[in-house]
Design goal:
The protein is of the alpha+beta class. It is built from seven helices and 26 strands. The longest helix has 20 residues.
Length: 400
């Protein structure tokens, strides 16, 4: 069987992702969620002409050198001046207060000379100065946040200012994780002479948690067909949206996951990808549940999750897909094979801007080099190798 190109595999996965569905959450729980519908302003902000500082509200035309105006009252935030300000009059005003009717300018208090109920100014008036006009921040009908945006604290702030307390966000999937392999033990446990620590589920849970309603780790399942079948059947019976296995995805005598998934009714779309690391990637579905079978090698598992599962989750939530960055190389890359290579790279800052330094380590079990990396360099199939300074496509490892 020939290897499926990376782009074809990703397209097949995205074609299986269901349409976005939404739920309503309180604004206090909305940060980090993806907006399912645009937020449209339903009132003007500010809802009135307002003072931008403490000072005096005046008619600009009334302000003349050494001439006093009569102070007829005051206005503060939440308590406007009731009445109309006439010729030769001023109103003491504080930041955020509605501008009195008849005024068109605010002069800051540091430029005012007060004498009892009179005031004059040390500077000329500038019409409209220090006045926040009605709707200056946003107006009725303005789109404040577009659908598909992941809500940041700044966006939460403007939504609150728009008097919106409940927000429509994309429903997040429930994800189930399964690790397989007789050689695996959980972190913190004593290691036998032929055992290694299981890291995949912990790295995957940390990577995928921002996209998920819940990530359930179903632990380690053995390389035993009946036990594995029973364990995965129990996982599928809980009706998760996405199941992700790691290990046992190849075709060796102890690689049982593919056969077990088929026995359980999972329809596999593909299971070998033209990439490195991560060739033995499986993908399929059972009803509405998407099933990913990742390689057991930890670098392969994390890289395939970044390249394939994260885009699927962004599509699930209706978030925009990210285009690769393009950065110059800070060091040369070697020639590549016929498989697309997602090479580890380190972001470096130079006097002329950011660059990506290739990491020479390519072992799919070498977790420390992946932990040191900031980016994956996308090296095309059969690439001859590139010199320092060449612009290359890269994928950020962290981030949504």
């Amino acid at each position: 069987m020939s290897l499926l190109p990376v782009d074809a595999a990703l397209a097949a996965i995205l074609a299986r992702v269901p349409p976005v569905s939404s739920e309503i959450v309180d604004i206090a729980q909305a940060v980090g969620r993806v907006l399912a519908e645009p937020i449209i302003a339903r009132h003007d902000q500010p809802p009135f002409n307002a003072s931008a500082m403490d000072g005096y509200a005046v008619r600009a035309a009334d302000v003349q050198p050494d001439e006093f105006l009569t102070v007829i009252g005051s206005a503060q935030a939440g308590a406007r001046f009731e009445g109309v300000m006439g010729h030769g009059e001023a109103v003491r005003i504080f930041t955020g207060a509605p501008l009195p009717e008849g005024a068109d300018t605010v002069i800051m208090q540091e430029e005012a000379i007060r004498d009892g109920e009179r005031v004059r100014f040390a500077v000329p008036a500038r019409p409209g100065h220090s006045v926040r006009l009605k709707g200056n921040d946003f107006a009725v009908g303005d789109t404040l946040v577009a659908a598909g945006e992941r809500l940041s604290p700044m966006q939460i702030s403007v939504i609150a200012a728009a008097n919106i307390a409940e927000i429509p966000v994309s429903r997040r999937p429930r994800i189930a994780l399964v690790a397989t392999g007789d050689e695996l033990v959980p972190p913190g446990q004593p290691l036998g002479p032929d055992q290694i620590v299981a890291s995949n589920s912990f790295g995957l849970a940390a990577m995928l948690a921002p996209y998920a309603d819940v990530v359930l780790d179903h632990g380690i399942m053995p390389d035993n067909r009946e036990a594995l079948r029973e364990g995965i059947a129990n996982v599928l019976a809980q009706d998760p949206d996405i199941v992700i296995t790691s290990g046992g995805a190849s075709v060796g005598e102890h690689d049982l996951v593919q056969d077990v998934l088929k026995d359980l009714g999972v329809s596999l779309d593909f299971w070998r990808i033209n990439m490195r690391p991560g060739k033995p990637l499986m993908f399929g579905s059972l009803g509405r549940t998407l099933v990913f079978g990742l390689p057991g090698n930890p670098v392969s598992a994390m890289v395939t999750a970044l390249v394939f599962i994260k885009p699927a989750l962004r599509a699930w939530l209706g978030a925009a897909e990210h285009e690769p960055w393009h950065l110059p190389l800070a060091g040369a890359t070697p020639p590549n094979s016929a498989r697309r290579h997602f090479m580890r790279g380190r972001l470096v800052h130079t006097p002329t801007g950011p660059e990506v330094l290739p990491i020479s380590q390519t072992d799919s079990g070498h977790t420390s080099s992946l932990a040191y990396a900031d980016l994956l360099i996308i090296q095309p199939e059969n690439d001859a190798g590139q010199q320092s300074g060449t612009l290359v496509a890269v994928l950020p490892i962290d981030g949504f």
